[in-house]
């Protein structure tokens, strides 16, 4: 019987990377930085917010007086569509390539004072539909081969504005993280003739100890190999490659699951819980990716309270990530939380 209470390392089959788990360390005293949680007193509409309906953004563009979701081209886009193709390769060591792309911002709601868990389910459904539409529309462009939908929530994660929003960066190349996972899923399906995440989901549903919430179409778990203290993985039960393949009932079920998961997060430390989340979808280069299983990662930085945060420093920067609290105890804590 493998002893999960002593130091051990766990394998991430999606990235082929290892993580060090040190459960015995959860007893050690905390002598790090302690901050107080900010009080959240935001108005429904903020005339100074560049994401609120009707307001002017940097550069002089004005938001429409939107009443549901609102999508606009990022005024400070990291990627641009009209870049001349170019390549540098000096002895395979100094390498660079031009990169074309499109960056957009998606406002979830006109309500400045809300975050996703505050939104009614039918409005979250609107967000799910926009994610799929944006993936379809941007992915159809000939120079776009990957669409990354992601949300940075909370100042701790570097979000520039508390107004509920996310971003889409659509690029010519498949970025590093999804490329790693794509390769691992492909290799698994070649050697085992099965989908890695379908098999993983079946294992988690049998074990049960890392399952946080589920409904007819979706399951959320703290992955066995989680790096962040309260990291979760959102998986569709059906094997599909992209948000664009979701049936209507699956979109409705996803809105339900996201509301329940983010509400649990908020209840955990009694604050609007910060995280970076994002979808990993199959590339949009026109090829088929039968091994790819759609999923979302939630990476929250908080550790033990609203004021104690995990940083990837020291051993984690130089060697490999490490965690003290086990994914099983994180799952147990998240499972105890209410969904209201
Ligand atoms: P973040 O909160 O995740 O940083 O996203 C906000 C994005 O909004 C950010 O990428 C863009 C920034 O470039 N932005 C505009 O496009 N227009 C503005 O007027 C301000 C910010
Ligand atoms: Zn606002």
In short:
With 340 residues, the chain is α+β, with helices and mostly antiparallel strands.
Properties at a glance:
nine-stranded antiparallel beta sheet; alpha+beta; three-stranded mixed beta sheet; HIT family, subunit A; single chain; binds zinc ion; 340 residues; globular; binds 5,6-dihydrouridine-5'-monophosphate
- Total of domains: 1
**Which CATH class is shown?**
Alpha Beta
Radius of gyration: 21 Å
Low-confidence stretches: none
Q: Strand portion, in percent? A: 15-25%
Helix content: 10-25%
State the separation between the terminal residues, measured CA to CA. 38 Å
Helix count equals 6
CATH architecture type: 2-Layer Sandwich
Order of helices and strands: EEEEEEHEEHHEEEHEEEEHEH
Describe this structure in words.
The chain is α+β, with helices and mostly antiparallel strands. The protein has one domain (40-336): 2-Layer Sandwich (HIT family, subunit A). Helix content is 25%, strand content 22%. The chain is built from 6 helices and 16 strands. The strands form 4 sheets. A 9-stranded antiparallel β-sheet has the order 3-6-8-7-12-13-11-10-9, sandwiched between helices. Helix 1 (121-139) packs across helix 4. The longest helix has 22 residues, at 248-269. It is globular, with a radius of gyration of 21 Å. The mean pLDDT is 95. The structure holds 5,6-dihydrouridine-5'-monophosphate and zinc ion.
């Amino acid at each position: 019987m493998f002893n999960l209470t002593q130091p051990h390392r766990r394998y991430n089959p999606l990235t082929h990377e290892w993580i060090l788990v040190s459960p015995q360390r959860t007893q050690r005293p905390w002598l790090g930085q302690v901050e107080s949680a900010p009080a959240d007193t935001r108005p429904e509409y903020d005339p100074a917010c560049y994401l609120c309906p009707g307001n002017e953004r940097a550069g002089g563009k004005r938001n429409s007086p939107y009443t549901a979701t609102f999508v606009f081209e990022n005024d400070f886009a990291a990627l641009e569509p009209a870049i001349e193709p170019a390549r540098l390769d000096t002895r395979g060591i100094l390498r660079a390539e031009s990169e074309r792309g499109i960056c957009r911002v998606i406002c979830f709601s006109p309500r400045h004072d809300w975050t996703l868990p505050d939104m009614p389910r039918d409005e979250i459904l609107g967000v799910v539909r926009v994610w799929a539409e944006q993936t379809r529309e941007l992915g159809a462009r000939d120079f776009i081969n990957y669409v990354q939908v992601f949300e940075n929530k909370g100042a701790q994660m570097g979000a520039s504005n508390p107004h509920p929003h996310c971003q889409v960066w659509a690029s010519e190349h498949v970025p590093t993280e999804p490329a790693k996972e794509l390769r691992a899923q492909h290799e698994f399906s070649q050697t085992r003739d099965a989908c890695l995440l379908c098999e993983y989901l079946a294992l988690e549903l049998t074990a049960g100890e890392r399952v946080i919430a589920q409904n007819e179409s979706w399951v959320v778990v703290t992955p066995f190999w989680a790096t962040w203290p309260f990291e979760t993985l959102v998986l569709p039960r059906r094997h599909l490659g992209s948000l664009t393949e979701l049936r209507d009932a699956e979109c409705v079920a996803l809105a339900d699951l996201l509301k329940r998961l983010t509400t649990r997060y908020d209840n955990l430390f009694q604050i609007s819980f910060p995280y970076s989340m994002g979808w990993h979808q199959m590339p949009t280069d026109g090829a088929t990716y039968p091994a790819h299983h759609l999923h979302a990662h939630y990476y929250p930085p908080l550790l033990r309270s609203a004021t104690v945060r995990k940083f990837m420093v020291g051993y984690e920067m130089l060697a490999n990530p490490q965690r003290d609290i086990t994914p099983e105890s994180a799952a147990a804590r998240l499972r105890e939380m209410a969904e209201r």
